Amino acid sequence: MRWDIQHTTRFTYASPVRDSFNEVRLQPFSDEQQTVDAFELRIVPAARTRQYHDFYSNCVHHFDIVEPHTELVVASHLQVTTHPKPALDPGARPASLSGVDQALKTGRCHDFLQASRYVDTEPGTWRLAVDAIQGEEDVWQCAVKLMRFVHGYITYESRSTQSHTHMSEVLAQRQGVCQDFAHVMLGLCRALRIPALYVSGYLATEKASATHAWTEVFIPGAGWQALDPTHNRQPDETYVKIGVGRDYGDVAPVRGNYKGTTQRTMNVEVRIERRG
Does the pLDDT value for residue 21 go beyond 60? Predict the structure, then answer.
């Protein structure tokens, strides 16, 4: 599938601000599941952007605006082609939880086994994960059971949390948005020593076009496999991956700081259209 995606973030300040320094993670990478055909980033007020790849290989644009301004617009235009995701080989030998640590030595998994800013692996999280898998030993089946558990345990409720909400708060109130579903699943997987990473991206549906968050789990012998606990499914060609990290804190689309008023508003608009 071919997609045309426009993503606009607009900050409006109550009084002029200055010395604004920002990082933007909006340019996806090409891999076997997607090909980036074109990408353009526009900043208002105009600013020179530079870029680098962070520790997790995400493309990061950064810029600064030292002059006073009352509005900042970060707008990206992306054209991308998504490809069918290969299914796991049903005849493949199951990977056991008891042997997963040995297999992890072959992958870059260490960071995705640890607690992080919004994710914990405390005893309570481990107990919840153990109960959810119901004695299952196969790593892939465990991950699928955890996805189904999170989907059933948490209710999706718009604006019920904030970008910095920790998974413990989500479990306590049992409601959240897509990033909260992802954070809870990450905690449950990591508590069982299943490597799991956070994915930031887009999801195009018949009802809406929006940014989205899901997870990938490391399956020995099969590599990283995507699971979406918000929708209780494996991502397909309607998913576009922007970046990956330990949690939302590693892949926030726009992040920065400035000098001036704390009174500001932020508006985000995403438009996704299918091409051809």
Answer: yes
Q: What integer pLDDT is reported at residue 33 of this predicted model? A: 93
pLDDT digits (tens, 9 = 90+) for 113-164: 999 999 999 999 999 999 999 999 999 999 999 999 999 999 999 989 998 9
Domain residue limits, the chain: 2-83+252-275, 97-251
User: Closest by alpha carbon to 190, among 131, 248, 112, 133?
Assistant: 112
Enter the tokens of residue 184: 């809870």
User: 46-72: per-residue pLDDT in tens?
Assistant: 999 999 999 999 999 999 999 999 999
Measured in whole angstroms, the distance separating CA 162 from the mean position of its chain's CA atoms is 15
Q: Could you tell me the fold of the domain covering 97-251?
A: C8orf32 fold (3.10.620)
Q: Is 189 helix (H, G, I), strand (E, B) or coil?
A: helix
pTM of the model: 0.94
pLDDT bin (cut points 50, 70, 90) of residue 271 is very high
Reported CATH class of domain 2-83+252-275: mainly beta
